[in-house]
Amino acid sequence: QMSREGHDEL
Amino acid sequence: MNVFRLAGDLTHLLSLVVLLLKIVATKSCRGVSAKTQELYAIVFVTRYLDLLFSFVSLYNSVMKVVFLGSAFSIVYFMRYHKVVRHTYDRELDTFRSSFLVAGSMVLALLINSKYTFFEVLWTFSIYLEAVAILPQLVMLQRTGNIDNLTGNYVFLLGMYRGLYILNWIYRYSTERRYWQMIVWVSGIIQTALYADFFYYYLKCWNENRTLVIP
């Protein structure tokens, strides 16, 4: 599960 | 960055340009929900707190600042501008948006990937964005004849969400370990909320008449 840190979308 | 993601972001940007154009050029915000715009301002503030302490790319940072700036400009025009604020249809914009904020906060506290302050706020912004369009969709139903710019604004927002789904499918099939279930489920719900609007938008466009949502 990707959290805020791994999230590169807007 | 793939073509769907870029097209999605540019469509999102274009939707905000269309909305600001309508407000500035016609000096009117008729048919626009201030509640939806305020929810978007909350979404951007809680999601883009990471501007202060993490850097992804210049593209990401610039877009975040532009989205924040446009959201606050729109809220400013609708609530405080000496001419525009009188064109706001307060009595048509009655959706209880505080329930959406409270519900998203409770859900973010229950379902998140890490129980920290910034992570929960980020998750809250994902949930809130999914439902933030609801006051606007309800208001469109009550407005009757919807002007072109307002209709196009909502259409572009829906397009942006659809393009993000294509971006996820593309990334899932090309990247290793790309998995973001919270974002996907929220995004699919968010896009589904536009289905009704899209149906009537395309129907009216096809019949070449003014958009009305029954």
* Mean pLDDT over the full residue set of chain A: 86
Mean pLDDT of chain B equals: 97
Please compute the radius of gyration of chain B using only Cα atoms: 17 Å
**Topology, number of strands of chain A:** 0
Instruction: Determine the fraction of residues in helical runs of chain B and give it as a percent range.
Output: over 70%
Give the low-confidence spans of chain A: none
The rough form of chain B would be described as globular
Low-pLDDT regions of chain B: none
Helix content of chain A: under 10%
Question: What characteristics describe this protein?
Answer:
heterodimer; A: about 10 residues; B: mainly alpha; 9 helices
Describe the model.
The complex is a heterodimer of chains A (10) and B (214). Chain A has 10 residues and is mostly loops. The model of chain A has no long low-confidence stretch (mean pLDDT 86). Helices cover 0% and strands 0% of the residues of chain A. The N and C termini of chain A lie far apart (17 Å). Chain A contains no helices and no strands. Chain B is an all-alpha fold and 214 residues long. Chain B has 9 helices and no strands.
Short structural description:
The complex is a heterodimer of chains A (10) and B (214). Chain A has 10 residues and is low in regular secondary structure.
SSE arrangement:
The complex is a heterodimer of chains A (10) and B (214).
Chain A: no helix or strand
Chain B: H1 3-26, H2 34-47, H3 58-80, H4 97-110, H5 117-131, H6 134-143, H7 148-174, H8 181-192, H9 195-206
Helix pairs in contact in B: 1-3, 1-7, 2-3, 2-5, 4-5, 5-8, 7-8
